[in-house]
């Protein structure tokens, strides 16, 4: 990206000439254009600090190039901007006049891009070198001034002052006046006023409340570190000490010293800032938020507070798609808006990654308003991506708990709404705590379970009503836990989806299915196609299709035996991503099934946009078809619509004869469910296939 300060102004009334010059220099400069001299001067006065060079045509209507050149060179703000005059061949008199007016160089038409780029480069480099020399010269002057005042301070000894309390006279060494450089006019401004007027405005209250009060009421020595305005019109940190001189019980004088401690103080403040604030967002980091919130609760015992923790759902995807720079900008913008929620009555901080936290009074907690405000602020920031914020809420009733435990409880509530787009926030309770313990136990054991092959693949047959036998199957995973027995996917799949382990488990299941298919083929057994589930996380894997093709080649399988099931909810999250993936899978000759069709809110849109091969109708359609005529009509319509779209239909969750008979009556031939068979382990499934051999 070209720096903002690297701009070139092209001034020519002929558009073609401007285009030629723009194309020659647009890689090196941000190009500004003017059609005449008046327009050029307007741009120059507006952009004078950023324009690095001007390409100026001589002959233009209204105000020609000579007039522009003369006005620039007579203006103190514009005279140093290099000007290259553009002329026709054999215009010697005009060239001489332009050089006399201060042009830095001349180029003649027609242009040779290589030549004019080099000449402009030489001029700019020369100008930049002159600026460097000038800056070095000013730096040398500044250093000499600093050395001079250092010598003044050193030769004056310690910068001291004396305040005679009895007659209110104030004396200071010459070094103090030289350091502060305030003029004393007709005794109206005293040296004491000089010192007090030099204090940084935000530090003055501290001087009055601590330093001056101690001097007026106390005894002994007082010390304070504040910022004082110096001779160079800047504020430096200085340490002031003052000792009260007593005559018996009477306070007679105050003796003080001034020491410059700017470097030390700035270093200390920098260390303190790094220790307390998050380096990316500039707000409290985790440890500081804990400390400040604990203090807030202690100082306001009569106020009820709520802790709100939130994050950006699937933030990692944002980093992967848009880059980490965009992700960092998003985190900074979130941090900037947190002050609006705290309203100076609470605390807020950045805990980790995309996790933020607020602690505010109960009366300020309006989750619907907070969600709406965040949606409004970030709708334009990520116009091509829908941001979803998830919130966990912990009402602070037990203040004996540490703030980090409160944050953990809010996190637990937050995790309970991950992936649930109907519910954006949850409140911590004891049920969530039990779930948290279970989740942690599952997470601790999952890697070992995979390495020890505790996960087993079961097969649930899919029957054809016409053929009265199984025609395919769906692969389902079970966890054969050594202590708890066989665990249902409902107890662990959602946890794996949250922590990302589902990607490993998916691939394990896929390979197990391929291994079984290959073994059955090698044994000469009957083999039916098997469909496998694909989690939403794998949809974003760039190499997904290539990995599946490699798996088919590894086990020498035809893709007709290995089908892919994708949930309808994936369409809601990212329709374009899903559309691209389905096309790519079909190009690789895989059959694609849409699982849980009808469970979402975009079913018809999904059918319009994404051409899957098979629809698996969600079992909710079948739950009340006898009582609800509407459900029955919708179910029949879906089957007819799929037939017209050349899609097969599988009804899953079929449990009763009545459901089976109704599906037969509306033309749905393929069914899956406990009416025919539960999920079977490989041995049971092989036996079933043997029973149904031709």
Task: Give a structural overview.
With 694 residues, the chain is of the alpha/beta class. The strands form 4 sheets. The protein has an 8-stranded mixed β-barrel with strand order 16-17-19-20-21-22-23-24, surrounded by 4 helices. It is flat. The two termini are 70 Å apart. About 1% of the residues have low confidence.
The overall pLDDT average reads 84
Strand count: 24
Sheet/helix structural class: alpha/beta
- The level of helicity is 40-55%
The major beta sheet can be summarized as: 8 strands, mixed, barrel
What global shape is seen?
Answer: flat
What integer value in Å does the Rg equal?
A: 39 Å
Report how far the terminal alpha carbons are from each other. Answer: 70 Å
Portion in strands? 15-25%
Largest sheet, spatial ordering of strands:
16-17-19-20-21-22-23-24
Number of helices: 25
Helices and strands in order:
Blueprint lengths: L6 E5 L3 H11 L4 E5 L2 H11 L3 E7 L7 H9 L9 E5 L4 H10 L3 E4 L4 H43 L3 E6 L4 E4 L1 H7 L10 H7 L3 H17 L3 E9 L5 E13 L2 E11 L1 H15 L9 H14 L5 E8 L2 H8 L1 H19 L4 E6 L2 E7 L5 H13 L9 E7 L7 H13 L9 E3 L2 H22 L3 E10 L4 E13 L3 E3 L5 H7 L2 H21 L7 E5 L9 H11 L7 E6 L1 H5 L1 H13 L4 E6 L5 H7 L4 E4 L2 H4 L5 H16 L3 E5 L4 H9 L4 E3 L9 H10 L3
Parallel strand pairs: 1-2, 1-3, 3-4, 4-5, 14-15, 17-19, 19-20, 20-21, 21-22, 22-23, 23-24
Antiparallel strand pairs: 6-7, 6-10, 8-9, 9-10, 11-13, 11-14, 12-13, 16-17, 16-24, 17-18
Helix pairs in contact: 2-3, 5-6, 11-12
Features:
eight-stranded mixed beta barrel, 694 residues, 22% strand, 25 helices, 24 strands, flat, five-stranded parallel sheet, alpha/beta
């Amino acid at each position: 990206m070209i720096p903002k300060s690297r701009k070139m102004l092209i001034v020519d009334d002929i558009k073609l000439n401007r285009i030629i010059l723009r194309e020659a220099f647009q890689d090196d400069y941000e190009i500004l254009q003017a059609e005449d001299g008046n327009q050029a001067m307007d741009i120059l006065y507006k952009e004078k600090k950023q324009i690095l060079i001007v390409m100026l045509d001589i002959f233009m209507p209204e105000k020609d190039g000579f007039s522009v050149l003369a006005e620039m060179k007579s203006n103190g703000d514009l005279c140093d901007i290099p000007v290259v005059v553009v002329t026709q061949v054999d215009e010697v008199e005009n060239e001489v006049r332009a050089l006399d007016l201060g042009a830095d160089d001349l180029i003649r038409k027609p242009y040779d891009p290589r030549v004019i780029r080099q000449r402009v480069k030489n001029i700019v480099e020369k100008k930049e070198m002159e600026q460097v020399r000038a800056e070095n010269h000013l730096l040398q002057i500044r250093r000499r001034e600093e050395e001079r005042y250092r010598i003044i301070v050193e030769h004056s000894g310690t910068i001291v002052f004396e305040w005679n309390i009895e007659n209110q006279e104030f004396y200071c060494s010459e070094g103090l006046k030289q350091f502060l450089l305030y003029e004393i006019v007709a005794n109206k401004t005293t040296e004491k006023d000089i010192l007090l007027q030099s204090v940084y405005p935000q530090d003055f209250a501290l001087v009055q409340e601590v330093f001056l009060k101690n001097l007026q009421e106390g005894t002994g020595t007082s010390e304070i570190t504040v910022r004082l305005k110096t001779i160079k019109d800047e504020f430096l940190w200085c340490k002031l000490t003052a000792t009260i001189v007593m005559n018996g019980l009477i306070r007679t004088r105050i003796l003080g010293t001034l020491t410059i401690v700017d470097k030390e103080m700035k270093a200390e403040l920098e260390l303190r800032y790094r220790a307390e604030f998050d380096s990316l967002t500039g707000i409290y980091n985790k440890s500081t938020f804990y400390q400040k919130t604990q203090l807030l609760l202690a100082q306001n015992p009569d106020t009820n507070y709520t802790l709100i923790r939130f994050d950006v759902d699937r933030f990692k995807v944002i980093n992967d798609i848009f880059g980490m720079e965009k992700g960092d900008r998003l985190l900074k913008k979130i941090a900037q808006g947190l002050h609006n929620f705290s309203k100076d009555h609470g605390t807020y901080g950045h805990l980790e990654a995309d996790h933020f936290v607020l602690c505010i009074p109960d009366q300020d907690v309006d989750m619907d308003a907070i969600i709406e405000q965040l949606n409004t602020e970030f709708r334009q920031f990520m116009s091509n991506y829908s941001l979803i914020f998830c919130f966990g809420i912990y009402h602070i009733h037990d203040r004996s708990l540490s703030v980090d435990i409160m944050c953990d409880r809010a996190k637990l509530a937050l995790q309970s709404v991950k992936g649930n787009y109907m519910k954006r926030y949850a409140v911590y309770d004891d049920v969530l705590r039990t779930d948290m313990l279970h989740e942690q136990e599952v997470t601790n054991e999952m890697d070992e379970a995979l390495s020890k092959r505790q996960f087993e693949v079961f097969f649930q047959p899919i029957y054809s009503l016409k053929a009265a036998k199984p025609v395919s199957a769906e692969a389902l995973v079970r966890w054969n836990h050594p202590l708890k027995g066989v665990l249902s996917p409902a107890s662990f799949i959602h946890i794996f989806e949250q922590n990302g382990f589902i990607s490993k488990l998916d691939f394990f299941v896929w390979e197990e299915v391929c291994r079984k298919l290959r073994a059955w083929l090698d044994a000469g057994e009957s083999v039916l196609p098997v469909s496998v589930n694909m989690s939403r996380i794998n949809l974003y894997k760039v190499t997904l299709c290539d990995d599946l093709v490699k798996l088919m080649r590894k086990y020498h399988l035809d893709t007709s035996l290995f089908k892919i099931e994708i949930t309808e909810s994936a369409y809601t999250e990212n329709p374009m991503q899903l559309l691209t993936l389905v096309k790519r899978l079909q190009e690789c000759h895989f059959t694609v099934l849409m699982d849980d069709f009808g469970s979402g809110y975009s079913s018809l849109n999904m059918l319009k946009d994404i051409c899957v091969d098979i629809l698996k109708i969600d079992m909710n359609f079948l739950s009340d078809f006898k009582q609800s005529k509407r459900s029955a009509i919708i179910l029949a319509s879906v089957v007819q619509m799929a037939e017209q779209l050349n899609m097969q239909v599988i009804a899953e969750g079929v449990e009763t004869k009545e459901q089976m008979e109704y599906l037969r009556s509306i033309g749905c031939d393929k069914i899956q469910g406990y009416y025919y068979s539960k999920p079977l382990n490989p041995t049971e499934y092989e036996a079933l296939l043997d029973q149904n051999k031709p």
